[in-house]
Amino acid sequence: MPSAFETAYASVKELVADFRANEPFYQSASFSEAQTRKDFIDKFFAALGWDVNHDAQKNPYEQEVKVERNEAGSQRRADYAFFLTPNFRDVRFFVEAKKPYGDFGAIENYFQTIRYGWGNKTPLAVLTNFDEFHVLDCRYKPIIRDTLSRVVQRFSYGDYADSEKFAKIYWLFSREAVASGSLAKFADDLPRPRTTTFRRDLFKGGYQSIDESFLIELDDYRQTLAKAFKAKNAGLNSEQLTEVTQRTLDRLVFIRFLEDKWIEPQRLMERFGTNGTGAWEDFIASSLALDRTYNGVVFKRHDILDAPGFQVDEKPFRRICEELSDPTSPYNFDAIPIHILGSIYERFLGKIITDNARLIEKPEVRKAGGVYYTPTYIVDYIVANSVGRLIEGKTPAQIAPMRFADIACGSGSFLLGVFDLLLRYHTKFYNDIPGRAKKGDCVKRDGIHHLSLQKKQEILRNNIYGVDIDRQAVEVAQLSLYLKLLEDETLASAHAFQTEFHYALLPSLAQNIVCGNSLIGTDILAKGPLAMEVEKRLNPMDYQQRFPAIMNGGGFDAIVGNPPYVRIQGYPRLQLDYFSDHFQSARGNFDLYVNFIEQGLKLLRANGLFGQIVPNKFFKTDYGQGLRKFIVENAALDTVVDFGANQVFAAATYTCLLFLTKTPRAKFFYAMSEANGKSLSDLDFSEHPFESLTSHPWVFAGKKTNSILAKLNRRGVRLLDLPTEISRGSSTGDDEVFMMETAKCNLEPGILRIPLFASDFSRYYFDVADKWRIIFPYKVENGTSELLSEKEFQKLYPKAFEFLQARKSALLKRKQFSKWFGYSAPRNLPIHERAQICIPLLADRGIFALVPPSMRGKLCPMASGGFTIALADSIRLKPEYILGLLNSSLLFWCLRRISNVFRGGWITCTKQYFGELPIRSIDFTNPAEKSQHDKMVLLVKQIVAAKKQLAEAQSDKDTDFYQNKCAGLDLQIDALVYELYGLNAADVKIVEGV
To answer: Residue 902, class by beta-carbon neighbours within 10 Å (0-12 exposed, 13-18 middle, 19+ buried)?
Structure first.
């Protein structure tokens, strides 16, 4: 049986023979592009394994090859777009077709094709007339002067009959090859462009993706508009400037979208200011006319922007219009996917305009380190496994009353995902069962049922709901949904709709996508009126008032999204008190996302589903205890997809996909995943009993692992429950004042301490670098520490006082003096004075150490030094015994399961985690147990000595000797620990990963 390649090669050779036999005709003006595609290009890609003619894939939303037949004269979409099941959102590559006759090598042809690819973030595209087949590099911003240099491979039709040359095409563009990642592999090996023209344009963003590039341009336009508006309208404040500049840009982007889609037949923008009137005057007039046609928030009259007295500096506005409407612009809004525009706007919303027309990041964005748009593979997975599950098997009539929401919708990425899913589902339903479509639900093109604009409007109004506290975000979310609504429309379909129904193309979404505070209701006003500025900033919202029918019906069917991740430090007391009164999850030093999870569950109807991407820290942290309890008591955990230490976002945030339901569950499902779409498509779920969620913290482990953890807990006592004191190291403030090289320490000795950092100790080894000293202006007596007064300090330590005063003036300018000399009191000094064990903040194995008795009372542990443990005098367990347990493979294995794991395998060793470790108790009246305790103490003393000898080794022979000795002692300690906790051989294999 011939292989797929051999079959394809045979088919293509027949096409070559046919073309050669009538070459003069095919290369004449009589042979059209449509004939070229039908007779040769369609067949060529069908031979490569693609369903070009949709023989198998009928649903227009689920076709691996989207073919543009240039209806209504449109030339703005690529002739072929290739996808891979099940992802019908992200194009793998484009093909632009031409006829053999004519100027195939015209620069405009290459530019057009590259623009399709770059706009969709596809690395390669093909320009072909069958006679020629050119592979183009689309990784970089298209520059029309440089497009000819972007050809990376050339073939003529005769090359197709050459087995080796055809193989290059086949193993790059066949379905078989593309499914195995051929395009990305090929693109990775391509060099960067070297031409002078292209390199000259790099500073403009040549190496940037479309979203990065267009965001830069939008920011530039926004800054320009803000200055132009402010110059002529000096009374505009920050809020007004932000609003009018965004509305202006929204209109311009929407106009370009309509033009590139050919929904608007005229090129409006390029005519602004060309008929003897001003560009701004034409823009306002066009907006008024477009509002009558389209409706919606974009062109709706704005009290400031559309007022007769509003003036604009004409020159910069005209420049923006000229750049956006330039035929050589790299942006083709018909080809840019709506979700990519959404990702641009999400980051666009992270900035505001100040009163003096400066563009700055919002304070909350700056604090978070930027805006991080949710990747589409995350959106798709959450939507499919919440909304998708709920609508599965239902008819359109059954779906119509269902309500799906994102209560922190931002630019609307999740709402777009829901809308896209609903459109695809309805289209498939009507194509599978054509007789179920009511009049007006569908239109038929190319023998396939497509949803009518009327039906898409109905789905949008019925099913999609969103809330955001930011009014600009609400506007952008509506804009995004409108763009999606019109995505597949044409001039003909839009005209037919208005002819039949006589109303605007866009439905009002004012009752669907609303501006308000999802977490703070209007009951915050019950205790008394707030200052108007405070109330506006809080923007309280009552769900019953804004969505009465939905709330009276029991709530939303599904709530999806990506809520804000914001720690509550610095929040006003008014809000903190409100959260504390209204949310069980608002406990301790919580993060705002826990309240969004709780609120989402409260707004969910009895059989609804909740699906969001949230930090996974609440599984184990103290602040997550309230949320964990709320979930257990009020909902059922359905599914968790945990990314562990794999980062979905560029920020150092570790996340999971959390699916909840109010329907009782006896079990839930858990899976680990890498942060990419491929891993999400092939998850290995394990089942867990719901009762396991009552543990603290949540540990998602199999039966065998849970059995071992249970053994540890039965035989041990929490470290926190032992008579011990645990304290975090402290920050001293300004290093210039407090940290001095030892050689320069000619101050009074009683005022100095040695700073302790994490680098000063390691596994069983303690060696403080005796290089620094810290001024320590405290007296420690009777278990308490007290800051010396300025007079006491000057009297007892005149040299140190003089040292500080000499630097006081400079430090005051830097705001370093918080008290009379600027020192922040170290935490729990008496505990550090008696410390016996050091714990680092982060560890990838047991790297805990003993504090030598000679160093006690001389140290000042720093924040980076982690924690210290001081055993009470009443405890009979020796510090060496506890250290041996903490450093053992078993307890670190346990710590890894109850703590947060970071990238690189490092885990958090804070008190809330290592304090939960079960310390094996000893019955000192039992000779066997006492013997085990004493044996551990002896082994630890030996390894501590050996570690010191290893550090002091002077030869390779000694280094090798002590390394082997330490390794042998480590094994003996591990074996003793396994014995102490009663682990059998099978348990040990699990712990050691054998």
So the answer is: middle
Q: Which helix (H) or strand (E) holds 227?
A: helix 210-232
Residue 443 phi, psi dihedral angles, 5° rounding? -125, 150
**How far are the Cα atoms of 136, 233, 234, 245, 609 from residue 357, in angstroms, in the given order?**
42, 11, 10, 10, 44
Q: Provide the residue range defining the domain that includes 330.
A: 210-367
Per the structure block, which two tokens stand in for 756? 């302790």
Instruction: Output the six-digit token pair for 488.
Output: 């597949």
Contact 747, 902 (CB under 8 A): no
Give the pLDDT confidence of 148-187 residue by residue, as tens digits. Answer: 889 999 999 999 999 999 999 999 999 999 999 999 999 9
Amino acid symbol at 977: V
Q: Where are the beta strands (DSSP E) in 548-603?
A: 556-561
Residue 329 near residue 323 (C-beta atoms within 8 A): yes
Q: Which residue matches tokens 């108790």?
A: 921
In total, the chain counts a number of residues equal to 994
So what's the pLDDT on residue 110?
95
Query: Where does 583-648 have alpha helices with state H?
Result: 592-602, 625-634
Residues 613, 379 contacting (CB under 8 angstroms):
no
SS3 774: strand
Return the beta strands (E) in 524-603 as ranges: 556-561
Pairwise CA distance, residues 977 & 889, whole Å: 9
pLDDT of residue 733: 47
Handedness of CA 67, 72, 78, 84 (dihedral sign): negative
How far apart, in whole angstroms, are the C-alpha atoms of residue 328 and residue 322?
11
Six token digits for residue 439 = 């009049």
Mark whether 742 and 850 lie in a shared domain.
yes
Contact 442, 451 (CB under 8 A): yes
d(CA 135, CA 53): 23
For the chain, the 3-state helix, strand and coil shares in percent, each to the nearest 5, are 50, 15, 35
Same domain, 334 and 441: no
CA distance 13 to 153: 20
Kindly report the number of other CB atoms within 10 A of residue 912's CB atom. Answer: 17
Rounded to whole angstroms, the Cα distance separating 645 from 720 reads 27
Residue 805 lies in a domain: yes
pLDDT reported for residue 813: 46
- The continuous run of DSSP H or E covering 857 comes out as none
Instruction: Please answer whether residues 329 and 320 qualify as being in contact, where contact means their C-beta atoms are separated by less than 8 angstroms.
Output: no
In Å, how far from its chain's centre is CA 87? 19
Q: What CA–CA distance (Å, rounded) separates 731 from 728?
A: 10
9 and 65 inside one domain: yes
Helix (H) or strand (E) holding 155: strand 151-156
pLDDT score for 834: 81
What six digits make up the tokens of 557?
Answer: 């069917």
Burial, 445: exposed, middle or buried (Cβ in 10 Å; 0-12, 13-18, 19+)? middle
Same domain, 194 and 129: yes
Q: Please report where in the chains the tokens 């949710």 appear, as a residue.
A: 374
Q: Which amino acid makes up residue 132?
A: E
Q: Is residue 947 part of a domain?
A: yes
Distance CA 558, CA 968 (A): 57
CATH of the domain at 137: 3.90.1570
Residue matched to tokens 């341009």: 217
Does residue 439 belong to any structural domain of this protein?
Answer: yes
Residue stretches of the chain with pLDDT short of 50: 71-74, 196-206, 733-737, 811-823
